[in-house]
Design goal:
A four-stranded antiparallel beta sheet has the order 1-2-3-4. It has three domains: 47 residues, Roll (Transcription Regulation, Sacy, Chain A); 101 residues, PTS-regulatory domain, PRD; 106 residues, PTS-regulatory domain, PRD (Orthogonal Bundle), CATH 1.10.1790. The termini are far apart. It has 281 residues and is of the alpha+beta class. 31% of the residues are buried. The chain is 59% helix and 7% strand. It is elongated, with a radius of gyration of 23 Å. It comes from Pseudolactococcus chungangensis. Pfam families: CAT_RBD, PRD. This is PRD domain-containing protein. InterPro entries: BglG_antiterminators, CAT_RNA-bd_dom, CAT_RNA-bd_dom_sf, PRD, PRD_sf.
Length: 281
């Protein structure tokens, strides 16, 4: 691989399989110039750029301090280790740009309010925890202790991670959060029981709801283990109140999104709801 752009001593741009790639490694570009070959044994991380990222890579990354790249890489490494599913490489550029903008605003005393913070904490605890760790690093590296006074920035970083998981645009996390909140509202009003959100059965339902919501947004059919019709009939007869709530979710998704919920999915949702009811009655 040959160097096509040098961002700093530790980060360069090269091409691989006709795509631009961010390559990181300590001292990777020291003493190098454009056109030189990259020392392979110094490569620590590679991130493939996608879509319109390549056209704006130069102006964006040239403005970003090396410390931001280190923090960004740490966030992505943690996310890949702690969160199931694929973390898209495009997270590198968008997150580095976001973190840089955050530290610049914080230096000027500006803090952006995250109006989805409460839901992010509820629905995406793993992503939020990673965001909290990133904020500590940002505050320490750039001398910004006021960043630690709120969880707003941790929530924004979590949203970037969720967007990457979904592999869609910047609105994905907010759209997913909104859909989950809408379905949980249906559940609470329909079941009419005091739900303990710290309960393990509720947490399992939220996890299921997250992946179900992703499928709805992608208009993708469920890939759940197939259940025969006899199980479905048994479940709806045994838990009629829970199934009634499931049907309200089914009707809501059909009306608002044109999404048809398969019987297997209805079975799993009903089972989750029945466990919540039994635990909270």
């Amino acid at each position: 691989m040959q160097i096509s752009k040098i961002l700093n001593n530790n980060v360069v741009i090269t091409e691989k399989d006709q795509a631009e790639v961010v390559v990181m490694g300590r001292g990777l570009a020291f003493g190098k110039k454009i056109g030189d070959k990259i020392t392979v044994d110094k490569i620590e991380k590679c991130y493939t750029l996608q879509g319109d990222e390549s056209s704006r890579i130069g102006e964006l990354l040239a403005e970003i301090p090396d410390e931001i790249f280190v923090i960004t890489d740490k966030v992505i490494t943690l996310a890949k280790d702690k969160i199931p599913g694929k973390i898209n490489d495009s997270l590198f550029l968008s997150l580095a740009d976001h973190i840089n903008a955050t530290q610049l605003r914080a230096k000027d005393g500006f803090v952006v309010k995250n109006f989805l913070l409460w839901d992010i904490k509820r629905f995406f605890p793993a992503e939020f925890t990673i965001g909290k760790k990133a904020v500590v690093d940002i505050a320490e590296k750039f001398g910004l202790p006021d960043l630690l006074n709120t969880d707003d920035e941790a929530g924004f970083i979590a949203m970037h991670i969720v967007n990457s998981e979904l592999g869609r645009g910047d609105s994905s996390a907010s759209e997913l959060t909104k859909l989950m909140e809408e379905m949980l509202t249906i559940v609470k009003y329909s079941l009419q029981v005091a739900i303990n959100e710290e309960d393990i059965f509720f947490q399992r339902f939220v996890t299921h709801l997250k992946f179900f919501s992703e499928r709805v947004l992608l208009d993708d059919a469920a890939t759940l283990p197939s259940s025969d019709d006899s199980l479905f009939q048994m479940i709806i007869k045994r838990f009629p109140e829970s199934y009634e709530t499931t049907l309200k979710i089914v009707a809501f998704l059909s009306k608002t999104r044109g999404y048809q919920v398969a019987k297997d999915e209805q079975t799993y949702i009903t089972i989750h709801l029945a466990r919540i009811v039994q635990k909270n009655v």
